[in-house]
Amino acid sequence: MKRPPRNFKPHPFQYHEEIELVIDNLGNLGQGIGRVNGWVIMVPLALPQERVRVRIWRNKSNYSDGDLVEVVQASPHRRDPVCPLFGECGGCQYQHLDYPSQLDWKTQQIKELLRRLGGLDVAVNRCHGSPLTYGYRSKLTPHYEPRGEEKMVIGFQRADSRSTVDVGHCPIASEAINAALPSERTRLQAAAAKMRRGGTLLLRDSYPESAPTTTPSSKNGSAKRSFFFQAGEFFQNNPHILPDLVNYALSQAEGPGIRYLVDAYCGVGVFGLCGAEKFQEVVGIEVNPKAVELALRNAQAQAATNVTFHAGEAERIFADLTFPAESTTVLIDPPRKGCDEVFLHQLFEYSPARVVYVSCGPDTQARDLKFFTAAGYEVVAVQPFDLFPQTRHIEKRGNAPQERILNIMSTQDQNLGPTGEICTDLPSAYIPHPATGLLHLPRFIAKIRKHLRGELPKSYQRNFCRGFDRFLCLHLKVDPEQVIEIVQQCGDDEKALDDALLSLFPKDLKVHKWNRELVQKGMSEMGREALQEAKDKMGAGHRTDLISFADMIDFDEGRIE
Q1: Helices and strands (H, E) in the chain, number of each type
Q2: Which end of the chain has the smaller Cβ count within 10 Å, N or C?
Q3: Active site residue 378
Q4: DSSP string spanning 287-313?
Q5: For the stretch 179-189, what's the b/e string if a residue is b when 16 or more beta carbons lie within 10 angstroms of its beta carbon?
Q6: What is the pLDDT of residue 228?
């Protein structure tokens, strides 16, 4: 038997011990979940209803990870993957699962997110399927790594490591993007000898013209309309389902007595312009001036005379709005991190009759719903949309039949970047711990809680108890496992947790020394070189405002735009 890693915990299973079990669930990362005597086993590529043979490679505090060795009894919903790299490339998780079952599981996962994070037990409509289940992506951001003069690797992060798997053809990308990949490979190969490090490509298909682009702006179609947008900025990258999504959102924005629409976080104006014929007047509000310029250009191109756009200051979004609140729907489509408190305070103060919440992060949306329900809004229905077939990513939405109506539609975007899956609900490294004042400690605690629930993505597991986590514990003179054990024992009792941590940490804790060191990580000569390399890999090599690794964390997770 292969020798186990130095830090392998031999309980409850030995290293590479093979066991047989039945899979009964799918995790939010797309892995199969089964149990042996009540102990949870995570198994990638396994499906519910399957009996599988698994080889254990890691035991954690409350679950084990195993590799799929054999499917002893296959699920009736198992299918042969289209891509030969499925299971090796980390881009897709569900190619081995038939499409109707993908929609069923995504519906169930949305319901569970709302219950667990939003405290809402509401009906969830079946996930709305995509017209195309392959060849639908109009944007692709493959990473490239020069490996000598003979080979240029262009592709995506492997499912089980940080390295890049070479992808010559991506089945979920559009034909035009796949046609462009060989020429991009040739171009990069010619420059490989001069490259010091890799980077990220941007390939954008300007549907319906079907020509890939890396130009500053692109034109895309939706519901028989065309929109100009920045190629590097957000625009939904499944244009085939976009008309259904937009039409559904606008149908929920309509209602008795509703005459006005406010399109907040409006971007280049898709919702507002598509809704121009449904409302007496539409206003789009956006804090990005460049997006407002493009929205005005789109309005002019579509001759929309009852739609206006303006750049709103974050602190006074609704200050110049003259629409009566009782006749107005506000449609919001925030970034992955959800709505900030300043925006929500202004929204609730304005108090529109309806709110339609479109989101690219069901987890942060579920969190925000607590504030909406506290403000008197009620969720009546939720409608998921599957913008990313073959992957675990989702879109969703819902509504309610009273005076103050919250129509929720959340759209989960491809939450993957050069570092892997991105969590948008972890605290910034710059947030201090209330009881000790230590920076990063609240983030470490939040990561531990995700880890204990089996929800910490692989991209975070790689640095779990390493990096800042390890440096923090070294400063505290404690073992990370001690902190994990305390968090597990205290559960959600924050006072008990604070008391236990204070008793564990040294009495002469040098808080200011640690806080200063964390903020300055990346500022030494060696640190600056490593930081620049990390910025290049994340497509932010030109950014001069990211001066520490804590900045890079905030940038990666959307707290720095």
Answers
A1: 15, 24
A2: N
A3: no
A4: S-HHHHHHHHHHHHHTT-TTEEEEE--
A5: ebbeebbeebb
A6: 66
Tens digits of residue pLDDT in 16-42:
999 999 999 998 778 899 999 989 999
Among 92, 266, 360, 423, which one carries the catalytic annotation? 360
| Measured CA angle at 97 (ends 138, 113), to 5 deg | 80
Closest CA to 226 of 312, 156, 303: 303
SS3 of residue 474 by DSSP: helix
SS (H, E, C) 352-380: CCEEEEEECCHHHHHHHHHHHHHCCCEEE
| Annotated active-site residue in 184, 395, 421, 557 | 395
State yes or no: is 395 an active-site residue.
yes
Q: Determine how β-strand 39-43 pairs with β-strand 63-73.
A: parallel
547 confidence band (pLDDT: 50, 70, 90): confident
Dist. CA 140–CA 201, nearest whole Å = 8
* Segment holding 22, helix H or strand E: strand 18-26
Confidence of residue 548 (pLDDT cuts 50, 70, 90): confident
pLDDT tens-digit series, residues 202-219:
888 864 443 333 333 344
